[in-house]
Amino acid sequence: MSEFLGFAWELLAKVVYNVVAVVSSILNLLVFGWVEYFNIFMTYFTTFDLVGKIGAVILFAMLIAVPVLIVAILVHRYRINRRLHRDDTSNKALYREIGRLNKQVLDLMDEKNKLLALKVNAMGGTKQIPYVGASALADDHLPTVGNVVGAAAGAGAPAGEGAAATAVMSGNASLALDGEGVKDAAAAMAKATVEAKTLAEEKEIAQANRFPKLSLVDLKYRDWESPVYDDAISLEDFVDSFRAFACSQMKLYYTPEVIRRFVAGMAASKLLILEGISGTGKTSLPYSFSRYLDNPATIVSVQPSFRDRTEVLGYFNEFSKRFNETEFLRAVYEAGLRQDPSMIVLDEMNLARVEYYFAEILSVLEMPSHDEWVLDLVPTQWAADPKGLHDGKLTIPDSLWFIGTANNDDSTFTITDKVYDRAIPIELNERADAFECEPHERVHVTADHLQYLFQKAKVEYVIDDELLQKMHKLDQYLQTRFKLAFGNRIIKQMYDFIPVYVACGGTELGGMDYIIARKVLKKFESMNVSFVRDEMKGLIEYIEKTFGEGGLPDSVMYLQRIQNFY
After folding, report:
1. How far apart are CA 280 and CA 252, in angstroms?
2. Which of 186, 335, 431, 443 has its CA 20 to 30 A from that of 171?
3. For the chain, how long is the longest CA-to-CA vector?
4. Of residues 221 and 280, which shows the higher confidence score?
5. How far is it, in rounded angstroms, from Cα 18 to Cα 91?
6. Nearest Cα to 503, choosing from 231, 235, 265, 256?
7. CA 34, chain centre distance (Å)
8. What angle do CA 492, 495, 496 make, to 5 degrees?
């Protein structure tokens, strides 16, 4: 045993000796060794030349900087630790104080509500009104000024207490003044409760409905009251008043011709395409027109990534069990809940291929019966779905128009004949001159009345038979020389467009000229014009011979422009 103790003593003594030697070495390195360092420095410093002395000073300064830096780091870390500990202690105390103050605020609010209930009960005789607290937010019967304060006037009190109620209301001025304050407080409480109920309903819709946007539209129109509509306005007054409204209210200027074409285009098709150079008012025209009708249009910015119907209508997410709704879909749904005309503007519609993302809507709008204007959104109906959906389907309302704007430049796609045939194109290549007019307010008309005006124009302004014969002769000439035909769709649009154009202040020949130029002759742009350039000169001569010189100026100018361009 003595040998083991000797072994342990010798081993541990050696370890302690080494530890002490290490600590002693560190102290000599950083603290006690500076005397020796300085003696070595002074011994050699006197023998150095100038360069050696400078190098010796730099080296000695670097040696001094090392321990100084170590000490500074240790001191800095110590101060940070002390500060963090002190801040943590202060924060805990601050949090406790905030919690205490919040509790006091809640207690005071509850006490105030109880005092208010006592004051109201004191005014109501034997008619006791219960304390209205936080539970009112979940109650189906909302407190109002009438049911909180009405009993104080003695209306429902027994006959023996009527005098006391009268004395409270008329004999005591200070109590009457106090009663006014109670009324204000009760009104504020009722308003806050209604707002809380509305927010609770919106939150419930957002959480429990797969169509939250459409359900919020239902909530918006639940208590909506329609304005008083003007059923006496004519189409010509309609055009003139809109022009005056755009000038006086929005500082936008349009020629009567552009507005006639726009309104007549609405009669001929549910899709209008406004095209031309930038800055001529393509987007502002439908926007200001919708403002004139007091039903602002929904602007949908078309993106180059649009490929199919989901870009505009949205899609059902099988994972979240919700329908990803778009603003386009919301606007279509909301239009079905209004009586006035609605518009959706597809801004820069040819940044993507229209015949791709808009194909389904184009096909639906071609259906002869409005009952067939149906979009399939989901395969089945759920109990909580919006009331405007039937079996998961949404009907496009007859009061809705789609307005597309298009720039013809290298950044866009060419709009195909399939789209042009179904739409009414309107060119805006010039800005109208500014003018002065009297202020004009908005008008309120129903979409049914606007459709009535369109039908009335077709009865009152029947297209002249002689003009129709000339049109058919031109149709035969185009089929024989260019293999172009008007087509049944264009003929129908012409019968819808021209009478309304005349009712808006235009002429029969002017309306036909516009349709021929924009709907028929436009097809030359998709042909190889170099092969038919000589024939086009003969076409211009035939038009002037048939309709008279200057009879179809828009068509002749369009053909000449195509000749020069190609």
Report:
1. 10
2. 186
3. 140
4. 221
5. 47
6. 235
7. 76
8. 90
Answer yes or no: is pLDDT of 123 > 60: no
Residue 499: phi and psi, rounded to 5, are -60, -40
How many residues are there in the chain? 566
552 vs 173: CA distance, rounded Å: 84
Q: What are phi and psi of 29, to 5 degrees?
A: -65, -45
- Quote the crossing angle between the two packed helices 447-460 and 256-268, to the nearest 10°: 100
For the sheet with 298-301, list strands across it.
Answer: 298-301, 342-347, 400-406, 271-275, 424-427
Segments in 293-437 forming alpha helices (H): 310-313, 327-335, 354-357, 359-365, 417-422
Q: Say if strands 342-347 and 400-406 run parallel, antiparallel, or are unpaired.
A: parallel
Kindly report, residue by residue over 330-359, the tens digit of the pLDDT: 999 999 999 999 999 999 999 999 999 999
Rounded to 5 degrees, φ, ψ at 2 are -65, -35
What backbone phi and psi angles, to 5 degrees, belong to 402? -105, 125
Structure confidence by residue, pLDDT tens digits, 201-214:
555 555 568 999 99
Tokens, residue 56: 């010796």
Task: Give residue for tokens 């071609």.
Answer: 366
Pairing of strands 322-324, 315-317: antiparallel
Residues 6+ apart with CB under 8 A from 457: 235, 267, 499, 500, 502, 503
Name the β-bridge partners of 273.
404, 425
Write out the two tokens for 121.
């009960």
Give me the amino acid identity at 170: S
b/e map 263-279, b = 16+ CB within 10 Å: bbbbbbbbbbbbbbeee
* Rg of the chain, C-alpha, whole Å: 43
Judging by DSSP bridges, how do beta strands 271-275 and 424-427 pair with one another?
Answer: parallel
pLDDT tens per residue, range 154-178: 444 444 444 444 433 444 434 344 5
Q: Specify the residue for token string 């500060």.
A: 83
Residue whose tokens read 């194109």:
425
Q: Which residues pair with 486 in a beta bridge?
A: none
Q: Which residues pair with 323 in a beta bridge?
A: 316
CB 377 within 8 A of CB 316: yes
List CB contacts of 432: < 8 A, sequence separation 6 or more.
253, 254, 255, 258
CA of 361: how far to CAs of 332, 443, 548, in Å? 11, 29, 41
With contact defined as beta carbons under 8 Å apart, do 196 and 135 qualify? no
CB 250 within 8 A of CB 291: yes
